[in-house]
Each structure stands twice: as structure tokens, then as C-alpha cells.
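User: Can you predict the 3D structure of DZIP3-like HEPN domain-containing protein? Sequence below.
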Amino acid sequence: MATNYQSSKETTNFARICRLVIDVIPDLLRDLLNTRLPASGLSAVLTTQKRKIFSVLLRHQKNILYPQGGVYEGSVKDLDTSLLYILLRNIGNIPSHQKSWGNAPNIADRSLSANIDRLREQRNEVFAHAPNTSLSDGDFQASWDIIRQSVEEIQNSELNTGRFVVAVDEILTMEMDHRMTNKYIEALLLDIKDDLKKDVGAVKEDVGAVKEDVGAVKEDVGAVKEDVGAVKKDVGVVKKDVGDVKEDVGAVKEDVGAMKEDVATVRADVSSMKDKLNTLSTGTSLKKDRVPKLTAMIGEFTERGWIRRSDLMKESRAAAYRMYFLTSMGNPTSMRDS
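Assistant: Sure. Here are the predicted C-alpha cells for DZIP3-like HEPN domain-containing protein:
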């Protein structure tokens, strides 16, 4: 099958990039993930971090990392680039770059996550060029420079090895005849086909799940319709109750009106009583003022001999009051002489 491809400078360019994507980048990410895993290993982390990881996986990826009825028994070497990227992003304890994970980073951002995203983007670019299986010198050099710099920075900052940059440089200068060129192009195409099969399988499973969900939704709709019917009946009952309440409110309003009239009458009676009490209080006050004066005058009359104590004993209190009023009208001497 390899003989179907005619070798050229452009196909050789594409084959060199393919080899980086197929061989170098996955191995680099595997070594990086190993440095980020605890001593307990990958299987233990997948178990403890399942809630965080499971939701971001495609269906076929879930089947790989979380097989039904068991735990993942493979190693990091068995993981493809897509799974390596997901695990580094979610359990690698690597801070997000300025544009955040999954986005093209700023050119000046040389952080670890930025370089990982650059390698992911270059892989996607190679897949996009796969139908032509060729790459111009300009496009090739631009991609190569990005990949080499990212590989070098990850290697120097995170890994205790120099082998990945060496591998990149060797692939750039190695002899590649048409058989080797076709070999890596074929390998890339197989990777793409495998990814497509997995994606198609995942889509089919998702469609099946959607069908089940649709069936469940239909059942829920039926239940909702029944509930709506019940609600309508309840609304009818409520309307009747509201009518009864309105009648009761009308009766209460009439009672309140009558009570207001009664309150007004009571207020008028209370006001009248207050006026009478004020009048009575005024009269009582005047009488209280006169009693001390009368007592003092009787004492004075007694001392002067104008009246005798025996007379006081005989006279009633009314007589004493009359004497007070009479003497207050004129000279008490004239009363004594008479």
C-alpha cells in the first residue's frame, strides 16, 4: 500500500512532522505524566480522582480508564496523546496558562501548560493536513520550530533527560526514502482512522443513550399531562373557594363598618364624660379652696368671742357655712352686736 504514495519534498516534510506527532510527543507527555503521579501510581489516582476525571472523558475513554467491574490495569505507556493530555490537564497539578487550558496560548507565554497546548495544536494541524499528506517548506518549518521549542522547554524544566530534543533534531536530518516516508504517513492515517472509529462508536453509544433519554422524557411528559389535569381540577376548587372567601370578605367589611360607627359613638360618649369630669373637678377644687378659709375664720371668730364654742356644738355645719357667707358680705362686728 505504501507504493501508492509518490515521494516528494512536501510528503517528506509531512512524514517528518508525522513522526514527531506519533513518536516523540506522546513519549514526552508520558514521561511528564509519570513525574506528576504519586508513588501509588496511575490506577490509584484514577480511583481517587474519578469524580473529577470521569465527566471529561468520551465514552470510549471511560471504557479504557474505568472498565466495567474493575480498575485500570494498564500503564502510562498504553495511553494515547488525547488521554495523556486529559490526565495532565486534570490531575497533573499544572497551572493553567494565560488563555486557559484548551486554547491557543499567547506567543510570549512559555509556561508548562502553554507548551502542552502548543503540542496539542500542532498534532491537530497535522491531522488537518492528512488528506493531502504533504506540507510546504514554509508550513513545515513553522510547525517544526514550534514543536522543537516546546519540547525543549518542557524537557529542560520538567524532565531529567535530553533525549527528546536529540530525537527531534535527528528526525529533521535523517535520510527518509519513499518507503520510510510512506511508513509514517500510513501510521498517521491509521491513528486518524482509529480515532474516527472511536468517535463513531462513542457517537453511536451517545445516540443510544439519547434514545433512552427521549423515551424517559416521553414518560415524564405523560406524567406531566396527568399532573396538569389534576392541577386544573384543583384550580376549579380554588376558584370556588376564592368566591366563598370574597363573600366572607364582604360580610367582614359590613361588620367593620358597623364597628366603626359603634367606635365613633363610644368616642363621643367618652368625650362627654371627660367634659363632665373636668367640670366636676373644677367645682371640687373650688370647694377645697374654701374649706381652709372657713376653718381659719371660725377659729378667728372663736378667739375674738364673736361666737362661742358651745354655739358651734349646737349649730349644724350648715349654720356655720351660712355664717361664713354672711360675714363675708359685711363687717363681722355688726353680726356680733345683733
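Residues 331-338 have pLDDT under 50 and may be disordered. The chain has two domains: 9-176, 186-322.
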